[in-house]
Amino acid sequence: MTYKRILLKLSGESLMGEKQFGIDNARLVDYAHEIKEIWNSGTEIAIVIGGGNIFRGVQAAEGGMERTQGDYMGMLATMINSMALQSALESIDVPTRLQSAIEMKAIAEPFIKRRAVRHLEKKRVVIFGAGTGNPFFTTDTAASLRAIEIEADVILKGTRVDGIYTADPEKDKTAKKYETITFDEVYQKELEVMDMTAFTLCKENKLPIIVFDMNKKGNLSKIIKGDKVGTTVEV
Fold this sequence. Notes:
It contains eight helices and eleven strands. The chain is α/β, with parallel strands linked by helices. The protein has one domain: Acetylglutamate kinase-like (Carbamate kinase).
């Protein structure tokens, strides 16, 4: 096993599946089974999910809503996604704990680093909801911060594309994929991997990022086994 403890970052949009918004239950179940497979192998798993399938603070701000208010609404959207994934995992007998950066006693524990690590050591999947608990920070930043706090070996960023390309592969057919790339090269080439705050946090703490296609069955397990999947960003 290559990685003992991982943080899996999923976008809210990935939960939409074939839908235009909201949560596709079939996609949710697929993800739960993929996660269970690596959980069975003994990997300690933490997860951060975005909320873009339900609400985005940035878009709300563009429509005239105050950005802070919009961002808090976005954090609540991440909690809805986190609860949905928690339910899907527990339905297939994977023990979980949901921790929130904003206090919500009825549905989640508060984020406490020591408690989160203890859950991981006891082989519970820990889902971190509500971002960092602060406006103006993305869930990418929350993923980087939590991964560093729990001393994860790597961030696995599950997306719709199978890695990082020289250009957007959905728009440019000549775009070439990187197998590995350094943090500095990503800066120089102005490639979009994560937002700059999140990316800089990873670079400063020498935390590698693997960008891969979460929708391809078995990819998650291959990464844990050490197979070359997606693009690895390292120092």
